Amino acid sequence: NYTLPLSETSKFETGFKSFMRKMESEQTGTVKIHRDSAIKEDPTKFNGYDYNQNIHAVFGNYSDKWGKFGTQFGLRAELVETKIIDKHVGAPEGKQNYFELYPSIHSTYQIEEGETLKANYSRRVDRPNNRQINPFNDRSDKKNNFRGNPNLKPQFTNSFEFGYDRFLENGSYNLTAFYKQTDDLITNVQFYEIYEGNRVLV
After folding, report:
1. What one-character DSSP code corresponds to residue 38?
2. What is the pLDDT of residues 72-83, one digit of tens each?
3. Which of 79, 146, 188, 202 is 20 to 30 A from residue 135's alpha carbon, by CA?
4. φ, ψ for residue 38 (rounded to 5)?
């Protein structure tokens, strides 16, 4: 990270960050059909996949103050590369590569000593975790199965906040109003399917 003071009240900050994750997972299961039969490997319980994700981000922030008014502008640019390799025979390889910008604005206005108005805006991202994108049918619970979606996209949230702060000698209080809008919301979807003649919830 690098910080450049521009004046007594203003400064510019910038930085770069990379995050690289690599996960390899392989799980097998066995089955015994009859009490006296031999234990055999059950191919339906095989779970194997590689999960690789690289995140490269660069950011910049500028802050300044003019009398009673102060503000900070920020921008983060992010490149994400995700690859999912399902080790089941014939399974397609999943890829998600995208570039996004995440702006933010934080402003304050001091009405008088100990009394402040504030207004903020930011855009953020929530990415699905590796379990949510793993297409393997987890049947550890015979009545409730879990299966991820390898095409699951991240969700993006725009947040707006307006507030009032008042500081007193014996305490303080604040009022805040906010609004959030989330696109491509990540949520669980439930449905029934038949497995080995039984109705199970997925």
Report:
1. P
2. 999 999 999 988
3. 79
4. -75, 150
